[in-house]
Each structure stands twice: as structure tokens, then as C-alpha cells.
């Protein structure tokens, strides 16, 4: 038995996200509303400390802002312009912790920050910022294996910049500052790994379950009233403490209390574009942090054979459920990236846009500041100060700092009278690998090599094996087990190049990972839904695999496939993809 298989047998066998609502009848210590990265990290921290924990989300885990990121675990170098030194230091510390805990789902990425004679801030000031960024991340390489070490920043000559980024506008180019940050390769899968970690410690995690109100005794919250959005059944979940971690929905969640709770936020719309490679430079491996003459900046990252461009940062008044990507969002990003292109490079046009993502940031209110300059700090509200006991809300924050926010939240909870004499255990999430990780602070390459050679009787290519190992870590052995039983599950979901998902993944999405809709499977369990349009035949293939597992008959499968196809078409219509 290989090391990979032995670890699977010991660690993975018993854990899944099976969405069993029969368990909500038990009393809980903590109920969490919101299954984005903040809520999931709070659940992981609470369950890790031994608290009886339940988490609900009205959609799927990570279906909101947490799956619409820049695909980076970063310190936020641009926040230095607003002197947000505390946020940057916390983010850099957490970047290290997240990387060491999930080495199969992260990569170190070189960033190039060009400077021109006309740059504002100036090239020299950009260099000072890069140096300060490195200084604030002084402990980045502590315990890190070579593959996760962050090199020191350096200066790159204009000639070297032109060679590395042939599409870049070079009139007045002085050179570039080079530094490193961490790529969150598949944020949807990393979030699921944290969710599975919480479940492994006993947390009950329920997607498609919406909070409709609070159970009150006088001025004290003692639970949550919920509805299962899949079948309409209503439940009451008893909990000693309730944490509202609903991100941009947080103020809406507590609106039913009709009390002035002091929870104020600014919503900011963040759009990214998935495009053909900028300048046709498919071989470019660096992320570029470039500014146009307008002063707008854009981040261009190579990802899965495409360029990933963004984000926008637009303050909005609408509620999150009402927001869509509009043609104006796409045009803004295309105009910005075109400002950075050299004179001989064809400008990016709508036909180059493969897909878009939309996230809504829940930012803290900073008087006199726009959403772009507003702080990315988080804030925890104990609503007892407003007359509602045993209820907390989390505002602000970012993907990278979700763990730190959760630690602070749990420290406040255990110090409060809400939990009474709850039994606690020691738990240090700073040095705890996520579910599926092959080790804490270990190099990924040997693990991937072993997966390639393990179980040669399984009919999977080396490329597909690494794909599975990247997504699932040691739990990829579960995929191989299924294929050993039924070789047809090795069949690819798609015949298109670059799409490596296989049938067994769709099965595991439902049986082990709580997926209950085709969107859950395509967009947040598999990778195919994040790579652009999903063809009708591919949706049908997934529907045929998961429908019987979900109890759907043939008519229901056809209806679900049609609905999902239509949903995806409507999303593309909103920003003009189908008007070409």
C-alpha cells in the first residue's frame, strides 16, 4: 500500500457533507448564517474547539462573493496607498498560514508591477511600496518548503519586462518591480476543503437552507428559524449563540429584528473577465499589475489557458441578489486593459471575453472614502450593546483573512456568557492542514508524482490524475475507488481541450460534498463551470449522472437541465455575450 493510499484509508474515509437536516433537532452551541469563506472558517474554528456547530446558507457554500475572487491569497499591496498597514500585515500573515495548510491548492506566482515615466504613484514610490510589502511579510517563509517560499522583490529592466510581457505598452517604460503573491488556484475547492474540515470535527453544514427569522425569548436570541429552499420544509434550530456571517447580505439577515443594530456597510461590485490570452501571449506565466494613463489599474493573471482580468470596484445601492454583470462593467475592464497594450497589439474586444464573474464586497463604512479606498478590515458586532443578546454579526473582511476573523469571533464567543459551560478543546488552526491536504507545510510535487504512478490499473492519464490530486488532495483516492468499481466513471465530462473533469467527480459531488443542484456541481465541485460557457450536452451528461442520485426521474432531469442551461444563457445575455 502506498503512502497516498494509506493516508486516504486513515483520514478520509468517514467525512462527507451529506446535507442531513434530521440533525437540526439537536441543540447547538453555535449557529452560523452564511457559507462563504468567513462563515466556513467560523464553523471550522468553532467545531475545532469542540463546540456543537451548525452552519446554513440560503444558496450553496461559496456561491456568492467567495467564488468570485481574483483567485489570489494576497496581502493587498494596493492597500498600502491608503495606509492600511494593519490590514496588509494581517493578510500577509494569513497568506502564509493558508498556503502551508493547503499546499495542493495554492501556487506561488510572480507579479510584475511596471513603472513608466508618467506613473502615479511614481516608479520610485512603487518600489518603496513593494519593499514595505516584503518587510510586512517578514515571516512569509517560516516553515515553508521550497515550492512555497516567497523570493525577495527585485527590479527588472525595461528590456526584461518587454521580453516577459510582450503585449505591454512600453513608451516611457522604465522597468518593473517584481514580487510574489499566492495563487488561490481553485477558490471553490479550497473553501470546500475548509468546509470538510469543519464537518470532520462534527459541524453540521447545510446549503440551500435560508434563515427567515430568529427564535427569541425576550431580548435574547436562542436560535434561528429556517426554510429548506429545496422542499419548502421549515425548521427551528436551537443555538446558544448565533453568528451572522452573511457577507453582503448581513444587514438583510438581521432586518427582521426591526432594531437599530448599528450594522452598516457599503456594497461594492467586483467584476472579473475570463478572456483569451491578452496579446495572444499564451506562454506568459506572470501576473501583471499595470496602470493606464487614466490612473485605473488592472490585474492580468494567466489562469487555465486564459487571462483573468479585474477587478472593478463600483459602489452599488442594490441588494446583492439583484446585481448582474452589465455591458458597462465589461467595457470598463476592456478599456482599462487596452490602455496597457502596446501600439502593435490588437486591442481586447467583446469577442475576447469568454465569461465573467461577479462578487459583492461587504465593506465597512469609511466617511469620505469611496469603495475603492475603503478599508478591507473586518469588524465584529456584539448586538447585545443594541439590546439583542447572543447575536453577533461580522462585517467587512476578505478571503485571505477569513481564518483570523474566525479566531477573533470564537475568542469573543467563548469569553461571553452565551455558551455557558460548553466543553472546549485545544485547537490551533495556524498549524492545521485542511481536509484532503497530504501534509502541513509540505511540497506538493512529490505527492503529485505519487498520484501519477499509484494504482496503474485505473484508466486515467497523468494529466487527469494531477488534476484530481490538485482538487481533492488525498481524497482523490475516493475517485479512484469509484473508478475501480465502475470504470465508466473515468469518462470525461467534456470532449473539449483543457476540460479534465470526469464522471466520478459528479458522483462524489452529490454523495460526499453536499451538491444538490446542477449549478452546485458544475460551478463549485467541478472546474468546468468556471472555464466559460458549458455546452448543453455537457450539462445533460452531468444531469444523467447526478439525477438518479438525487431521486430525479427522467422528466425532472430534463427540466433541471433545461433550467440550468437557460440560467447560464441569461447570465451571458446581461453583459452582451449573446448579442455578438
Short description:
The protein is an alpha+beta fold and 580 residues long.
What distinguishing features does this structure have?
alpha+beta; 10-stranded mixed beta sheet; FAD/NAD(P)-binding domain; 8-stranded mixed beta sheet; D-Amino Acid Oxidase, Chain A, domain 2; 580 residues; Helicase, Ruva Protein, domain 3
| Structural domain tally | 3
* Main sheet specs: 10 strands, mixed
Overall pLDDT confidence = 92
Number of helices: 16
Give unreliable regions as ranges: 7-13, 369-373
CATH class descriptor of the largest domain: Alpha Beta
Q: Please, what is the CATH homologous superfamily of the largest domain?
A: FAD/NAD(P)-binding domain
What is the CA-CA span between the terminal residues?
A: 55 Å
Instruction: Find the structural class using helix and strand composition.
Output: alpha+beta
Quaternary organisation of the protein chains: single chain
Using the 3D structure, state the CATH architecture of the largest domain. 3-Layer(bba) Sandwich
CATH fold title of the largest domain: FAD/NAD(P)-binding domain
Strand tally is 18
Tell me, briefly, the overall form: globular
What percent of residues are in strands?
15-25%
Gyration radius, to the nearest Å?
23 Å
State the helical fraction: 25-40%
Amino acid at each position: 500500500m502506498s503512502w497516498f493510499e494509506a493516508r486516504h484509508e486513515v483520514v478520509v474515509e468517514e467525512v462527507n457533507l451529506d446535507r442531513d437536516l434530521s440533525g437540526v433537532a439537536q441543540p447547538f452551541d453555535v449557529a452560523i448564517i452564511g457559507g462563504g469563506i468567513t462563515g466556513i472558517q467560523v464553523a471550522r474554528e468553532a467545531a475545532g474547539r469542540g463546540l456543537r456547530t451548525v452552519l446554513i446558507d440560503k444558496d450553496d457554500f461559496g456561491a456568492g462573493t467567495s467564488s468570485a475572487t481574483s483567485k489570489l491569497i494576497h496581502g493587498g499591496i494596493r492597500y498600502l496607498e491608503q495606509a492600511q498597514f494593519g490590514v496588509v500585515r494581517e493578510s500577509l500573515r494569513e497568506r502564509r498560514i493558508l498556503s502551508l495548510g493547503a499546499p495542493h491548492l495554492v501556487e506561488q506566482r510572480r507579479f510584475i508591477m511596471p513603472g513608466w515615466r508618467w506613473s502615479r504613484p511614481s516608479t520610485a514610490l512603487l518600489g518603496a511600496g513593494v519593499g514595505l510589502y516584503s518587510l510586512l511579510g517578514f515571516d512569509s517563509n517560516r516553515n515553508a518548503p521550497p515550492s512555497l517560499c516567497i523570493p525577495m522583490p527585485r527590479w527588472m529592466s525595461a528590456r526584461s519586462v518587454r521580453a516577459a510581457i510582450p503585449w505591454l505598452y512600453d513608451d516611457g517604460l522604465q522597468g518593473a518591480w517584481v514580487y510574489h503573491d499566492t495563487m488561490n488556484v481553485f477558490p471553490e475547492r479550497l473553501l470546500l476543503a475548509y468546509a470538510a474540515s469543519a464537518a470532520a470535527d462534527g459541524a453540521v453544514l447545510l446549503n440551500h437552507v435560508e434563515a427567515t427569522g430568529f427564535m427569541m425569548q425576550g431580548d435574547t436570541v436562542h436560535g434561528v428559524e429556517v426554510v429548506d429552499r429545496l422542499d419548502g420544509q421549515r425548521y427551528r434550530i436551537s443555538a446558544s449563540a448565533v453568528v451572522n456571517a452573511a457577507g453582503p447580505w448581513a444587514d438583510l439577515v438581521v432586518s427582521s429584528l426591526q432594531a437599530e443594530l448599528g450594522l452598516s456597510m457599503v456594497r461594492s461590485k467586483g467584476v472579473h473577465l475570463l478572456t483569451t490570452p491578452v496579446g495572444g501571449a499564451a506562454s506568459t506565466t506572470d501576473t501583471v499589475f499595470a496602470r493606464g494613463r487614466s490612473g485605473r489599474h488592472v490585474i492580468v493573471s494567466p489562469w487555465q489557458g486564459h487571462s483573468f482580468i479585474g477587478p472593478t470596484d463600483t459602489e452599488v445601492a442594490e441588494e446583492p441578489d439583484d446585481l448582474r454583470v452589465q455591458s458597462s462593467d465589461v467595457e470598463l475592464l476592456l478599456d482599462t486593459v487596452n490602455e496597457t497594450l502596446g501600439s502593435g497589439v490588437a486591442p481586447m474586444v467583446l469577442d475576447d471575453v469568454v465569461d465573467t464573474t461577479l462578487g459583492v464586497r461587504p465593506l465597512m463604512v469609511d466617511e469620505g472614502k469611496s469603495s475603492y479606498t475603503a478599508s478591507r478590515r473586518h469588524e465584529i458586532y456584539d448586538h447585545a450593546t443594541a439590546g439583542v443578546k447572543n447575536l453577533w454579526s461580522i462585517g467587512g473582511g476578505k478571503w485571505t483573512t477569513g481564518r483570523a476573523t474566525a479566531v477573533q469571533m470564537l475568542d469573543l464567543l467563548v469569553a461571553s456568557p452565551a455558551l455557558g459551560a460548553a466543553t472546549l478543546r485545544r485547537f490551533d488552526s495556524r498549524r492545521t492542514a485542511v481536509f484532503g491536504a497530504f501534509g502541513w507545510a509540505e511540497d506538493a510535487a512529490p505527492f503529485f508524482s505519487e498520484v501519477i504512478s499509484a494504482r496503474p490499473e485505473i484508466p486515467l492519464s497523468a494529466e487527469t490524475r494531477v488534476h484530481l490530486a490538485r482538487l481533492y488532495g488525498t481524497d482523490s483516492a475516493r475517485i479512484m475507488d469509484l473508478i475501480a468499481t465502475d470504470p465508466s466513471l473515468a469518462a470525461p465530462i467534456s470532449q473539449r481541450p483543457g476540460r479534465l473533469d470526469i464522471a466520478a467527480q459528479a458522483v462524489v459531488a452529490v454523495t460526499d460534498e453536499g451538491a444538490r443542484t446542477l449549478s452546485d456541481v458544475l460551478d463549485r465541485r467541478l472546474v468546468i463551470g468556471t472555464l466559460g460557457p458549458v455546452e448543453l450536452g455537457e450539462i445533460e451528461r452531468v444531469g444523467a449522472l447526478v439525477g438518479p442520485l438525487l431521486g430525479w426521474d427522467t422528466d425532472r432531469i430534463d427540466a433541471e437541465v433545461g433550467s440550468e442551461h437557460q440560467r447560464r444563457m441569461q447570465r451571458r445575455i446581461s453583459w452582451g455575450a449573446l448579442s455578438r
